[in-house]
Amino acid sequence: GPDGIGGGGGGAEAAGGCGALLAELRQLWGEIGKSREERERTVRELEMECMRVYRRKVDEATAERASLHQSLAAGEAEIAALTAALGADSSPQLKVNKWTMSLNDRVSAATNLLEELRAMKAERSKQFTAIRSEIDKISTEISGRSYGYDNSPRASEFDEHDLTIRRLNEYRARLSSLQKEKSDRLHRVLEHVTEVHSLCDVLGEDFIAIVNEVHPGLHETADPGKPTSISDSTLASLSQVVAMLTSEKTKRAAMLREAVLPLVELWDLMDLPEEERRSFRKATAVLRPAREEALSSGVLSIATIKKTEEEVERLTRLKAGRMKELVLKRRLELESICRSMHVEPDTSTVPEKSIALIDSGLVNPSELMASIDEQIAKAKEEQQSRKEIMDKINKWLLACEEEKWLEEYNLDENRFNTGRIARLNLKRAEKARLIINKIPAMIDHLMSRTLVWETERNKPFLFDGARLVAVLEEHKQARLRQEEERRRLREQKKLRTLFSEKEAMPHLKRPGSSFGRATEPCNMSRKRVDAAPPSVRSSSGSSGSSGGGAADPFRPRSSAAAGSGAGHCGEFFRSGGARRLSAAAPFNYVAVSKGGGGGGGLSSSMMS
């Protein structure tokens, strides 16, 4: 009935609303005067219409439920696929309770999870794409398949069903390995390019042209948008270029060395000024192997080598015209070295003879120059071996100079005057006496050292043409004779003093005594003088006769020293025209006569 119509709504509010409408409809029907059959027919129509509406709603609800189940199943299937692709460990899981949650809630939860998983897949796919793109690009650069650079390189296909973190890490490891290999290759390429640039700079070659033959993108002026080629072929080509340039560098260095060696010899031979040498100073670095790597720019270029060879030819022609001057210069150098050693230079290359040989054309000037250079080398070696002995000779001669000065100082009657100069001379005299006392030891040591030198070299030590040991022995004997002469003079002085005292006391004479008897001491003294060596008697006689009176066996000590100083070191240098040893002038031995006046002396002389 009509009440069933209201009760089919399924709710109290809906039933109350339908019942009120039905009551109002019945009231209206009563007022209208509808028959019962019409009323029942209308009610049945209403019930049928309500049934149709309900059925439609039920069908719609059923379809919606089925759609939700289908959507949920599809979502769960996609969630399962995405979870499998992304990895269960790194993917969120769907957590729903089908017993407590409605289909809409379950579908909503699945939809949210599905969106999250899709976003993760898109991000993961982007990472895979980027990594694979970089891998493909580096692999292409290493293989050298393409020299171009594509800003959007086509990534190789990858399995979209395996987007796990494990797979991503494998791709990352492979990319890291390729990046390391690329870095190593790039470093090797840069090393090769740097070496090629350095070699081209030294050899004066065109760096850009040589590098372009290997790859056009290897130099600084290349297109910055293109990557540096790191392929095996590029590395192999660069290695070949480096080897070729290194071989060329070695070859040119040998060529330049062959040109520079005679150039330096000509410089030294001709004593050229620094201004003429300056332009070729960089080329001489090739003679120092330790600095070969530091050769300046273009020093091994063909132009530099040719210029050096031309300079050698020019100096060779110039040398021919200056050979006489060079020979004389070398000869003077040899004489200077020999003069410092007090030896005679080789007479085979005296200036007059050398010039005559050059003018006659009998001797090659270069051979003559080589001969003089060899003599200079031997003279320098000899000078070095004689250095110690020459130093001792200089000390001995300086001591002799002090002895000579002291002798003159002792003859000075004003040496005891007051004054600054007198005090300085007095101090010098004290030092001179100490030095003079060492002269015998100096001579002995010098003789022993000279004998060792002669033994080692099996030849005599010559000094201005005389054997040094013989000269030292003569000087040593002369000093001994001088000491004997001084002792004799001291005895004569004592006898003269006694004679003078006797003559000053005539009252001591006895009557009838004769002069000869009073002068017996003097006669005894004269007998002692007569018993002296002939040289001493001759010296005394000449001294007495020079006074213009009778022969006097007694004379002042100063006069005696002036007349009989043959063994004295000062007289040794004052007699015979001897000169002081120096590096600038040759030293002469003193010629001392063994016979006649002078009391004996040196028998050999030093030839200038």
From TrEMBL:
Basic and acidic residues bias: start-end ranges: 491-506
Protein's UniProt keywords contain Nucleotidyltransferase: no
A cellular component term, taken from the record's GO annotations: microtubule
UniProt keyword annotations, A-Z: Microtubule
Signal peptide bounds: none
GO MF, any single term: microtubule binding
GO term, biological process aspect, one: microtubule cytoskeleton organization
Listed InterPro entries: MAP65_Ase1_PRC1
Pfam families per UniProt: MAP65_ASE1 (PF03999)
Chain segments carrying region Disordered: 491-567
Family: Belongs to the MAP65/ASE1 family.
PANTHER family assigned to the protein according to its UniProt record, in alphabetical order: OS03G0719000 PROTEIN, PROTEIN REGULATOR OF CYTOKINESIS 1 PRC1-RELATED
Protein name: Microtubule-associated protein MAP65-1a
Origin species: Oryza glaberrima (African rice)
